[in-house]
Amino acid sequence: MTDLSTLEQEIFSGFANIKSKTELENFKIEILGKKGKLSKLFQDLATIEKDKKKEFASEINILKSKVLDKFQNLTNQFDQEELEKKLQDQTVDVTLPGTNRPQGKVHPVSQVIDELTSIFAELGFSVAEGPDVENEYNNFTALNTPPNHPARDMHDTFYLDESKNLLLRTHTSPVQIRTMLNGKPPFKIIAPGRTYRCDSDQTHTPMFHQLEGLYVDQNVTMADLRGCLDYFLKKFFEVDEIKMRFRPSHFPFTEPSAEVDIGYELKNGKITIGQGDKWLEILGCGMVHPNVLKNAKVDPSKYQGYAFGVGIDRLAMLKYGINDLRSFFESDVRWLEHFGFNANDVPSNYRGLSR
Amino acid sequence: MNITLNWLKKHLKTSSNTNAIAEKLTSIGLEVESITSASSNLSNFKVCKVLKAIKHPDADKLKVCDVDIGDGKITKVVCGASNARDGLITVYASPGTVIPKNGMKLSVAKIRGVESFGMLCSESELNLSEESEGIIELKNKLKIGDNFFTENLDPMIDISITPNRSDCLGVRGIARDLAACGEGSFIQQKIEKIKVTSKKNIKVEIARESGCSQFGGCYIEGVQNKESPVWLKKHLESVGQKPISAIVDITNYVMLDINRPLHAYDADKIKEKIIVRRSKKGESFKALDNKNYQLSADHCVISDKEKVLGLGGIIGGETTGIELDTTNIFLEAASFDPISIAKSSKELGIITDAKYRFERGVDPNSIEEGLIKASKLIQEICGGKISKINIIGKSNYKEKKIKFIVSNFKKLIGFSISNIEAIKILEKLGFIVKNKKTYLDLIVPSFRPDINQEVDIIEELIRIKGYNNIPLAEPNRIAFKPALNYEQKLFHYIQRSIASLGYLETVTWSFASSKINDLLTDKKLRLTNPISSDLDTLRTSIFSNILTHCKNNIDRGYKNLMLFEVGPVFNGINPGDQSVVAGALRLGHKIEKSWIEKNALSNVYDVKSDAISVLLDLGIEKDKLVIENKSNLLFHPGRSGSIYLGSNKGPLLATFGEINPIITNQLEFEKLSPCGFEIYLEGFKEPKKKQKDKNVFVVSKYQSVERDFAFVVDKNIKASEIISIIKNCEPILIQSIDIFDVYEGDNIEKNKKSIALSVKLQSMDKTLDEKTIEAISQQIILSVQAKTGGTLRS
């Protein structure tokens, strides 16, 4: 007959010495195995007097459950330690570089075209297009610039045939002609696109981008033109106020014609658009010349309107602080990464034009 | 056009200063490009004394001078003049000074190791004469340190005159515009008369269709040509004109003053008479610019009985040129056809002040006025007797009348102008106005060829009244059409889609080098006047420039690249022979210098999946894509493919592959085997089904099963063939077929390959039983074996 409390002491001091899961398993066999110390007690039960049997059995069961609990606790403890050790061993150096996914970018010209489209779409303009190769008629004659007109000399034109009938458009204005010839008034369009002049130096590239605007209806006035441009420039440069100056000028296809200057100031070598006492020429505009309307089969006694043309690359340079026009077209990946825009940065009115 | 305030004051009574005038000019459309303040620069030139001139230690022809400039110190100046010597009084220019002759700004410079603070000047450097031999030698009595230029030259105002405003190519026209806008008052000059004292003349004939409508001539006998008087020289110099001799200077002066070009001939060298006619092919003459011109037919020439004397309205000839010893002159003032002048000057490449003016329009009524002004000045300065002015030919000038409905101003501009104000402005601009209450009857002055219709009047009024009076109207938001159509949206999506894959967008010229471009197509769309020989053709491929630019990046040390462009590609030289293509190129490692995935180079399958990913972004359904093993000249013939929509006869959407080594060889980066894809936006049709028309969402609730197969087939059997054979076995139950292994080599016969596929089966209405699955599997195996001649790999 073993004294239960002695056995309990013996077992629990045994637990105290266990250092590993294997030892624990062996100890479990030693205690609870077929020939284990505790199992033996159940075998002894048969030899115990009947009246004490019930009480003894209950005591053994209490002890057994205590021991089982302890086993479970220790098992959990060892499992936990083992897991922790395993995880410890799995440690990697997270400061090593990750998998570099290349970051694609959208070219600033594309971004600015999207910004402009977003602004003018809000005002009800739709986007029109025309071909890069134009005939001499659409590029000049229809735009009230007949052959030998001195204004033609101001456009250094690329030609595709000896008779000088086919050329690369020198401005986006021929889109005005195409739009009007292919539709019925009213017209309210913008036409962004590539334009070409045979000119190359610090500030000129043989290809550049323009955005043409045209709004022709029965009562469109020069006051509407001013209002539209004021709205556009404020939106584009994301300022509340902009100093804008209309200066008389001459384009054969508009009358009256104006060049538009905006105020700016230079502070610490950085240009701030909108205020300041310096002027920067930003675009050309005017009321569509009646001859142009006539050439485009629109009745000038009924319809009138405005047109404007603005250099997209120049807008991009001013807004995003790009100094060299030529760098736009050189595909230097360092430049593209620096000035490019995230593919998700789609200009919109609710999210803002730019971040 | 250059003017000065002093010259302007001959026609305008004003007390404003140069800056105020300049501001006003810009505001009325006569844009001031610059104001050159001559006086502040000229005060940098000082009278100085060379104290000591010694030979430069390292240059035989240079001297190092100790110069006294009146500040009590000694200034070291290196000088190359042979006359630089001890004790010489001359002119010193300090660092920062702009040298009049060449516009160069002086700075402190080391000349052959010796620092030089400024410069000693020659007469030619100061535009005083042609004398460039040696530095100026001044008289001893001048005070050292005094300004060399004692009189202040008027600042020069450079105005950019728009091509319509020929009247402002004369100072008088500019004064008239200023007066109209309230800046001072216009001085109306009296029409002068000349006293005819000579009976000599030269007969003039104008041939038909000569390009000259009227020709005015005036003979002046017994003149004494000489250097111009100071006032005249100063006027011309102050606007950047070089004085030549009194007679020539006077013709230039009148031209600049009232926009009336004139020409003076040495009358004694004219043979018999003057004939204005069209040139004959093969004629030639030596012009005043010292060049010989071989003429084709049809130039308007001034000739005499024997020879061509000059090109009418463009340039005179040397034979009848005015010299200092010329004694009898014949003055010409004529009306030439602007188009004829423009053509001739373009063809012969001659640009002169006269041509510039005739091309834009010279007042046809100014012939007599010009001759009177010039001949009177000539008589004043050079003496001589003037003959009667003889004008032959018929003026083709027609007086222009315009009916101006005053309310139309408001209709176009957005605010109204009163009759009184309109009349005031127009009269000051030279119009003759009759007020008819609701409208004005106008007669346009002869010096305004640009004014032809009512809108031109409105322009004049708002220009003079001031553009800043135009109100700002709140823009309306009426739209007549959606902002973008389908094609435009595609353009927008494709840029963002390709960028989101990691490519950098670039924009390159629409023209390219034929050297590269011709490798990509057989079309030759040449520019007749390219800006340089390596940009001589319209690009027929989106890759023509990307490839070259790729090479530039490689040369800069960037060998892992992803670049793309979306833009026009040309198929002909007529308008509209173009289409929008997106081209993307990748080269080098997928992951730049990675320790994780070493040497993983971009390959055909990367660009294929990139292309497909973009097509899916653009709304193309994946199961409608058909891949074919062929492409175009851009790609490696064995490592490229095409993607069609629907079937291989459907529209071509894209091509992809490794760039043809023939091309990369040319650019010397074939070792980097770049890959790319092209997407052709013209292949896309707007789908009838919009996003809002999505199919009903249906999924099977029964389990799917997968079965794997491996076939050994001939190497040239395409994966797509096997997939389509399998799919056709059970089009409904087969949900997907994935290739998970392709193997050639050990254990596989030569010229054979093993392809392993996983086939997923699922039914919409029941769980598939083993029997059905087995039957389908057998059918797959038999079909593939029968149609490809392959075997199931054991």
Describe this structure in words.
The complex is a heterodimer of chains A (355) and B (794). Chain A has 355 residues and is α+β, with helices and mostly antiparallel strands. In chain A, strands 1, 4, 5, 6, 7, 8, 9 and 10 form an 8-stranded mixed sheet that branches. Chain A folds into 2 domains: 4-89; 108-339, 2-Layer Sandwich (BirA Bifunctional Protein, domain 2). Chain A is 40% helix and 21% strand. Chain B is of the alpha+beta class and 794 residues long. Chain B folds into 6 domains: 2-38 and 154-186, Phenylalanyl-tRNA Synthetase, Chain B, domain 1 (2-Layer Sandwich), CATH 3.30.56.10; 44-126, OB fold (Dihydrolipoamide Acetyltransferase, E2P), CATH 2.40.50; 203-393, Phenylalanyl-trna Synthetase, Chain B, domain 3 (Phenylalanyl-tRNA Synthetase, Chain B, domain 3, 3-Layer(bba) Sandwich); 401-469, Phenylalanyl-tRNA Synthetase, Chain B, domain 1 (2-Layer Sandwich); 486-683, Bira Bifunctional Protein, Domain 2 (BirA Bifunctional Protein, domain 2); 700-792, Ferrodoxin-fold anticodon-binding domain (Alpha-Beta Plaits, 2-Layer Sandwich), CATH 3.30.70. In chain B, helix 13 crosses helix 16. The termini of chain B are far apart. The mean pLDDT of chain B is 92. Classes of the chains: A alpha+beta (355), B alpha+beta (794).
